[in-house]
Specification:
The chain is α+β, with helices and mostly antiparallel strands and 320 residues long. It has 10 helices and 18 strands.
Length: 320
């Protein structure tokens, strides 16, 4: 998201840009998976831009035909006891897209030169410019997780190090359930982060109308605690699914014995639990800038905003 924010800002100013993306899709953890008629947002399950630049872009610049405002609130789950949150918290606007939250990345990338499934392992100094693969650029904005960014910086002799940035692992589990599950909330949150299951998204409640699950069925996304994810990261999918399903059945009081479909996603760099300030990471006049969630924070709008900030530093400090 930081890379897309930077590229859109530069392109709007008439600066040619290229985005290199090692995965098959746009938007990083703003990701969606489809399995046998079910649709799961298995990274960022909602977008809550909170009046930032991203909210303005979503509402005023991008197509809104697929945009959905998530109307049902988040409830708290503590030791299997489900309670509503403070009504004031419900005033935060939350969004998704009918066919998956990854629609946002696709819309942001429209009109940009994005090279999908392209991994950059090193940067080379090429006179006043920098080479990535066979191409040369005046500036580079690095938006990968900090450990990968540090390796790219080292490849070009840049000794910047960000030891203060730390990341948590996260295991996401997707369940397609052949049972109707309707609740007054779209998600449950463990406020103490003390249980293995810390976030449960009811995808078919979040985006109603049959877009996330077949009629009479339910799509669930479960995100596990940092402790459980760290302990279970190398365990098999079958073990993780079976353990989590026991908790889901109990919490939601389900009748079905087993899920219809299930899958696991392991996010190695899920949340930047400690970040580095933008000023620490980027000195005035730098040709290689560092952005991304290790600088901004884990939320989608924070990553987008720090990408814009890096682009503006280039525009304000250089004549290209």
């Amino acid at each position: 998201m930081a890379g897309l924010g930077a590229a859109r800002t530069l392109q709007a100013a008439g600066i040619a840009t290229v985005v290199f993306e090692k995965s098959r899709g746009f938007g990083g953890r703003v990701a969606t998976r489809r399995i046998d008629g079910y649709t799961f947002d298995h990274g960022a399950t909602i977008i809550s831009p909170r009046g930032t630049e991203l909210e303005s872009v979503i509402l005023n610049e991008l197509p809104t035909e697929e945009l959905v405002e998530v109307l049902k609130p988040i409830y708290l789950s503590t030791d299997d006891r489900v309670t509503p949150v403070d009504p004031e918290a419900g005033k935060i606007k939350r969004f998704s897209y009918r066919h998956g939250v990854n629609t946002l990345g696709k819309l942001l990338a429209d009109g940009l030169d994005v090279r999908l499934e392209t991994k950059i392992d090193s940067i080379k100094k090429d006179g006043p410019h920098y080479s990535l693969g066979e191409e040369s650029f005046s500036h580079v904005i690095l938006t990968a997780p900090i450990p990968q960014t540090e390796m790219l910086l080292a490849s070009v002799g840049d000794k910047r190090s960000f030891s203060g940035a730390q990341y948590r692992k996260c295991i996401s589990i997707m369940f397609g359930v052949a049972e109707e599950i309707e609740r007054p909330y779209h998600a449950l949150l463990d406020p103490n982060q003390s249980q293995p299951l810390t976030w449960l998204s009811l995808e078919h409640v979040k985006v109603p109308g049959g877009y996330r699950a077949p009629e009479g069925k339910a799509a669930l996304v479960v995100q596990m605690s940092a402790r459980y994810s760290r302990y279970s990261f190398e365990r098999t999918d079958d073990i993780v699914i079976s353990e989590t399903w026991v908790d889901i059945k109990r919490l939601l009081k389900l009748r079905v014995a087993l899920p219809e479909v299930s899958d696991v996603m392991r996010w190695h760099y899920s949340h930047a639990s400690n970040t580095v300030s933008y000023e620490t990471a980027n000195q005035p006049g730098a040709k290689i800038l560092v952005a991304g969630d290790g600088i901004s924070g884990a939320r989608t709008h924070q990553a987008y905003a720090v990408g814009i900030r890096a682009a503006n530093q280039i525009l304000e400090g250089e004549t290209i």
